[in-house]
Every structure is written in C-alpha cells, then in structure tokens.
Amino acid sequence: MDLRKELIQIVEKSGALSAWGVKHCFRVYHLSKELSSHLSLDDEVLYTSAMLHDTGKYPVYALKNIDHALRSKGVAANLLQQMMFPPEKIPLVLDAIENHMYYSEPGKSDEAIYLRESDILDNLGNIGLMRLFSLVGQDELIQTPEDAIERARLLADALPDKVVTRAGKRLAVKRREETLRFLAGIKRQSLEFAWL
C-alpha cells in the first residue's frame, strides 16, 4: 500500500476526534509547505511527521498521564519500523513529532520547525476557533462554550510569541486578530458572555 494512504488509514482508525484527525494533519502539512516554500524540505519526512504528530492523543494509542508528544514519538517509531520507512529518515520524523508542541523548543531540522509552526498556527484564527468549539464536551479542559472562549483568549495571547519564522510570525498576527475580532463580537452579542 502507498505510504500516504497507509498513514491516513492509521489516523482514521485511531478514534481521533475531528479536531485532531486527518483534516488537522492535512492543514498542518500544507501550511508547513506554504510557510517553507522558499526551502527544499524532505516531503516524505514532513508528510509523515504531520500525519503522526498527534497519534499519542488518539484513543487507540493514548496512555494516561503521558505527554502526547512523547507518546506520539513512541507510536511513530514502532509504526515506521513496521512500515519499512527509510531508517535514515526516522530520527528526523521523531524529532519533529517530539518537538511539535508550542511549549517545546523547535526541533533541529527545518521540517521540525515548520511542523511546529503550522501546528501552533492551526490553533489560532477562524480554524482554531472552529476546532475549540468542536471540542466542547469532548475535552476535559473545554466542557462549556465559556471554557472554549477562555482557551481562545489564552491561545491568542500566548501562541504568537511561540512562532519563530518570519512567515509564521506574519500569519500569527493575522490569525490572532481574527480570534480577537470574533471574541469581541461574541462579547457584544451575548451581554459580555452571560447569554452563551
């Protein structure tokens, strides 16, 4: 089977919520390519990293009290060996996966840096808001619309400073503004969130 199709099947069969599933992985991959268009990244490493970066939070693979980035790295290591992925590229994929979270330092390779940037940016703006509200009642941190709004506010304040590339910083500013416009509109239309 084609590697890309196999990776898609892994995510589809993992029990992933749609906010973290295949479409999120596609957005992260394509945004990584867009932001790094001036470079020649290894597309196989980038695509594989994007598809497997969140596996550690999917129900089939998740372990309680284990950081999902570390769990994703372990899951990916096993899967890639089984799939006969080029062994010289496995460390690049694992580094990108381990360091994809906003609270991590960027990984060593350009693929890792742009994967992290794109994952951060997918939490901001219209797409980030859609993802947050789709998680209401599905995520322990987001049980109510008010929780989603508070999380959106926190992400809008914190995430732009985590982005390190010039292209990523420009997009972070735009997506932060989208988030803040939405929050201001909801505040006006809901008696300062009282009517949510």
Automatic annotation (TrEMBL):
It holds the Pfam family HD. This is Putative domain HDIG-containing protein. Transmembrane segments: none annotated. Residues 21-124 form the HD domain. NCBIfam families: HDIG (TIGR00277). PANTHER family: HD_PDEASE DOMAIN-CONTAINING PROTEIN (PTHR33594:SF1), SUPERFAMILY HYDROLASE, PUTATIVE (AFU_ORTHOLOGUE AFUA_1G03035)-RELATED (PTHR33594). InterPro entries: HD/PDEase_dom (IPR003607), HD_domain (IPR006674), HDIG_dom (IPR006675).
